[in-house]
Amino acid sequence: MSKQYAVIGLGRFGSSLAQSLTQEDNEVLGIDINEERIEENREAVRHGVIADSTDEQAMKSLGIRNFDVVIVAIGDNMQASILSVVVLKELGVKHIVAKALSKHHGLILSKVGADDVVYPERDMGQRIAQKLMSPSIIEFIKLSDEYSIEEVRISANITGKSLIELDIRARFNVNVIAVRYSNNSVKISPEPDYRLKEDDVLVVIGKNDDLKELEKFNA
Ligand code: ADP
To answer: Of 93, 119, 145, which residue sits at a domain end?
Structure first.
């Protein structure tokens, strides 16, 4: 069953989030103090109301505590973002996600009751830096400071070789968990004798340092 989300603050981040959640068939209510923002998102977000999220009475009358997740996507106005989390917590919202601009801002948001704090600008900067440094990495998921999962676009060096010939596990201490073919279908735990084709993508898991060695070899 789809969840009910409320997104407070339809700036660049909030509106993109609300649109994506709507596209995936969730019930989404967009809330903004500024009427123009509600109008701009009318088609993509469908349900929108003009309201001030620091106003406890206004939030109460929207039934904000009945939403499964409420996201505070207010950016520049730090005071309003912190106060909004206080109000939502006070009203008993089950799951509050809040966007922070800085570490200090994030710390305060957690202290006043945000269950999750997100740092979209910081995270996006890191992802783009990673992409610039390693163009063959399509996607990566950091599992811990030590381990990651990466999707690696294979180079001409590797094309045509079988997984057993490459022997990635023994040489790099990295495990191949899947191959994504050019038609986007995915083969989990591919057979060792599978020969890699041009445009295949390897999904690998390992220590960050070991993954870097594999990247150099694949370059
Ligand atoms: P971004 O950096 O993601 O574009 P902005 O700070 O520009 O974020 O946008 C934040 C949005 O939050 C704006 O549309 C603004 O009108 C809205 N906003 C600010 N304060 C409140 C509030 N108290 N209640 C509801 N919406 C608010």
So the answer is: 119
